Every structure is written in structure tokens, then in C-alpha cells.
């Protein structure tokens, strides 16, 4: 090879990074993602992927991924919004959220358009960690450019799927099911005969879902619902408890009530190994209309299980379970334990932290998408001219809804014939971290919760 040609190649390699950095700039203090579809195609389908490039600028680091695929995602948020959510699929596995999270090909780009705070989904990740759930989709805020046009603040988040550091069951044989209804069902799905509930089969994948596996899933669902409906449903061995991981189920349900999410019982994920008897529940997800952000019905002082909505079939099961003294006591005990561990303070601190993380990008977002205008008919029709007013609404919900739930749960427990334990304010030297775990080294520097107050140890 000629020396001049070698020099030319070396110069091209040396300047590839800076040229890319000049072409793709970071807009605010969160990463900026540039997606360019092949031939500038519009993304018009949530079933068919199209090819694109994905470039993320994060400080001095620029990640460029060729042969990426993108399509639409969601239901109402896809069909009824100009700021659309997407699903991206990389050619090779990527770690987009850090080493503690999944290395995967599939990721979601959430628009959070119906949520004027844009932090409800990210807040729920913090809640899931505090509760101790095995998996909750995490969050990374970005500014998004699509084919050269700025599209606003988005959130990179985990795809709910069977995968290491997501739903961890066997990829070939493990079960991942989604409770659905007429609006969200998708093939393959099973409709139960006892309660008429539709269950989307998310795993095993279509090519691995043999007839024997499908029959096994159907038989388990029928047995579970039969146990719920039986006269022995309160029995720990003959009733529904023989089919659920009790800790996971209570954590999921209490978490769902805490989020005040109109869609919490519209789409429920559940999973287990094929040879395992008991089902696990979670994660909490899809919270843009959560925390009382729906015009359909307010959950400020209302329980999920008693909304009486036609398309929330799992309500029937939960209403029956509330007649079981064990279930009522388990829900009461778990909620009170979380409150004692500093739940409200944790959520307040998380809201403040997320507000700070999104402050610059939200200002850019609302230059394109008006902050005081309706997006969906079903979002809460309460609009402000400034971002912090929406943050104040979110905080007000948390501080009102949690005490309400404590009272509502206690009333349900009393109805079963059990007298609820009185919750009293106690002075305690016990420290908890911001995940609600008891601190073993109380002299260590950091931020803690003590007697329901946030304290800092220097």
C-alpha cells in the first residue's frame, strides 16, 4: 500500500470521533439521542420494524449503533398522540442503563406525553426498589431527535421480557403472562372459563410455544381461578395461596394500590418457571396515568380493587381475596411496614431528585409540546402554566393517598373480623436507608430515614 494512502486512512480514523462529536451535539444535561431511519422513512407501524442508526451523545462519549431497528409501541399512546413511544432493537446487546442493569437488544423509548411531570414511570422504579420487588423497569432520560427533528424529552427503559436482570426465568420454557382484555389482547392468548380473563402469553416465544406448553399454561390458569372461586379459597393449601408466591403477590398488589394507577389492573404481568407451582407477580409498569393522573376516575381516595370498571377483570379476584383474613392482614401489615420504614419520605425525596434530573430537558420539551394543553381525553384535566405546579400535584397525591390507603386497608381488615393493630408514632433510634432497609452500621455517613424523617449523617 502506498504511504500517502496509509496516511490518508490514519487521518480518517483519527478524525472520525471529533467529526461525529461536531455533528451530534448534546442539547441539555441529559444524553441526546439521534435516530435516523433508512431513507428518512416515517415510523408508521408498531408491528413492523424499520432500519435506523442510533447515536447517543453523553458528555464526552458518543455511541453510534448501525443496523438498529425501530417500530412504534403502546396502544392508546401510539394511536392518539403526536409524540409517540417507540421500541428499538439493537444488532448486539447493549448496556444503556449501567452495569447493574440488563445488557439487552430490546429497549423502550417512552414519550410520557400524558404525564406533564414526565417522571411517574421513573418514580415507580424507585417505589419498586423500596418495596423490594425483584424487577422494575429502570429509567434514563434523554433528548430525542428523529430524522433531524427535535421530538422532546424521552425515557429509555427496560422492555418487560424474559431476560437476565429483567424477568429472570428460563428463556425457552419459563412463563411470562400478561393479564389483558379486549383492548390489549394479542396472539397468542388464553381466555379462562371461570372469570373470563384473557392472558397474553409473552414467553415462551411463538416458535417455542408448543401445544403441550400452551395446554400446561391453560391448565394452571384454570386451577388457579378455580381455587380462588372455591369454598376452600381461604385454605393455605387448597386455596389460591397454593398458586402464588405470597411475598411477591402482596408486594405487587400493595405497590399497585400505592401508585393510584387507573391501568394497574388493565395489564398485569405474572411469571414462573414451567415446573414451578407458584406464580410471581410484577413488575409495576406503565404509570403515565398513575398517581391520580386520569380523568376516568380519581384514585386519590379510592382503591384499585373497587373501581368497578368493565375492562379490569382482575378486580373480581382481588375483591374475593379481600374477604380472606390472611390476605387482608398481609396487605395491612405490608403497607404499615413500608410507611414505618419511611415510604412517604422516600417518595418525596425521589420526586425532588427526579425533578432535578429532568429540569433542563423538560424546559426544552415544553417549547414543542405545550405544558398547559390536553393530550388525551383520559388524562387528568387539570393544567398549569409551569412545571413545578405539576410536581406539587404529584406530591399532594402521595401525601393524601398513603394515609387514605392505611385507613381503607384497616377497614377491610376489620370487615373480616380482625381488629387492626393500632399504628402509633414511636421515637426510635433505628435508621433505614432510602430503599427502606434497616441500616446495620448506624454511624456511617449518608442520608437515612429515622422516625419517618429524612436525616443526614455527616
UniProtKB/TrEMBL annotation:
Superkingdom as given in the UniProt entry: Bacteria
Matching InterPro entries: Spore_coat_CotH_CotH2/3/7 (IPR014867)
Protein's UniProt keywords contain Manganese: no
Organism for this UniProt entry: Xylanibacter ruminicola (Prevotella ruminicola)
Annotated coiled-coil segments of the chain: none
This protein's name: CotH protein
Signal peptide residue numbers: 1-21
Pfam families: CotH
Keywords: Signal
Amino acid at each position: 500500500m502506498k504511504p500517502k494512502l496509509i496516511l490518508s486512512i490514519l487521518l480518517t480514523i483519527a478524525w472520525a470521533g471529533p467529526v461525529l462529536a461536531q455533528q451530534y451535539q448534546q442539547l441539555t444535561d441529559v444524553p441526546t439521542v439521534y435516530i435516523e431511519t433508512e431513507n428518512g422513512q416515517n415510523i408508521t407501524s408498531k408491528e413492523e420494524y424499520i432500519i435506523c442508526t442510533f447515536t447517543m451523545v453523553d458528555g464526552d462519549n458518543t455511541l453510534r449503533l448501525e443496523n438498529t431497528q425501530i417500530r412504534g409501541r403502546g396502544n392508546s399512546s401510539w394511536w392518539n398522540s403526536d409524540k409517540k413511544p417507540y421500541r428499538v432493537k439493537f444488532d448486539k446487546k447493549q448496556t444503556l442503563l449501567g452495569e447493574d442493569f440488563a445488557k439487552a437488544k430490546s429497549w423502550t423509548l417512552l414519550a410520557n406525553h400524558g404525564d406533564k411531570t414526565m417522571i411517574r414511570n421513573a418514580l415507580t422504579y424507585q417505589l419498586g426498589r423500596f418495596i423490594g420487588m425483584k424487577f422494575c423497569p429502570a429509567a434514563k432520560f434523554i433528548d430525542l431527535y428523529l430524522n433531524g427533528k427535535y421530538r422532546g424529552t424521552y425515557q429509555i427503559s427496560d422492555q418487560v421480557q424474559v431476560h437476565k436482570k429483567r424477568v429472570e426465568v428460563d428463556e425457552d420454557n419459563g412463563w411470562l403472562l400478561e393479564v389483558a382484555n379486549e383492548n390489549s389482547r394479542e396472539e397468542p392468548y388464553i381466555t379462562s372459563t371461570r372469570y373470563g380473563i384473557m392472558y397474553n402469553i409473552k414467553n415462551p416465544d411463538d416458535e417455542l410455544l408448543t401445544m403441550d406448553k400452551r395446554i400446561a399454561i391453560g391448565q394452571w390458569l384454570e386451577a388457579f381461578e378455580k381455587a380462588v372461586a372455591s369454598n376452600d379459597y381461604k385454605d393455605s393449601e387448597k386455596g389460591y395461596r397454593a398458586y402464588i408466591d405470597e411475598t411477591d403477590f402482596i408486594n405487587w398488589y400493595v405497590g399497585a394500590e400505592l401508585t393510584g394507577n387507573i391501568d394497574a389492573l388493565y395489564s398485569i404481568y405474572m411469571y414462573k418457571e414451567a415446573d414451578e407451582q407458584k406464580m410471581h407477580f410484577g413488575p409495576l409498569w406503565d404509570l403515565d396515568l398513575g398517581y391520580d393522573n386520569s380523568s376516568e376516575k380519581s384514585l386519590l381516595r379510592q382503591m384499585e380493587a373497587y373501581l368497578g370498571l368493565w375492562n379490569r377483570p382482575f378486580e373480581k379476584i382481588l375483591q374475593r381475596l379481600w374477604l380472606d383474613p390472611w390476605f387482608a392482614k398481609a396487605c395491612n401489615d405490608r403497607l404499615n411496614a413500608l410507611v414505618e420504614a419511611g415510604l412517604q419520605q422516600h417518595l418525596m425525596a425521589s420526586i425532588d431528585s427526579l425533578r432535578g434530573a429532568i429540569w433542563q430537558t423538560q424546559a426544552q420539551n415544553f417549547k414543542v409540546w405545550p405544558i398547559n394543553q390536553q393530550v388525551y381525553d383520559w388524562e387528568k384535566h387539570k393544567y398549569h402554566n409551569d412545571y413545578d405546579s405539576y410536581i406539587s400535584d404529584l406530591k399532594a397525591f402521595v401525601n393524601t393517598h398513603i394515609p387514605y390507603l392505611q385507613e381503607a386497608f384497616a377497614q377491610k381488615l376489620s370487615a373480616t373480623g380482625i381488629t387492626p393493630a393500632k399504628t402509633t408514632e414511636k421515637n426510635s433510634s433505628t435508621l433505614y436507608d432510602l430503599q427502606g432497609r434497616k441500616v446495620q452500621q448506624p454511624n456511617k455517613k449518608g442520608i437515612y430515614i429515622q422516625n419517618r424523617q429524612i436525616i443526614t449523617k455527616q
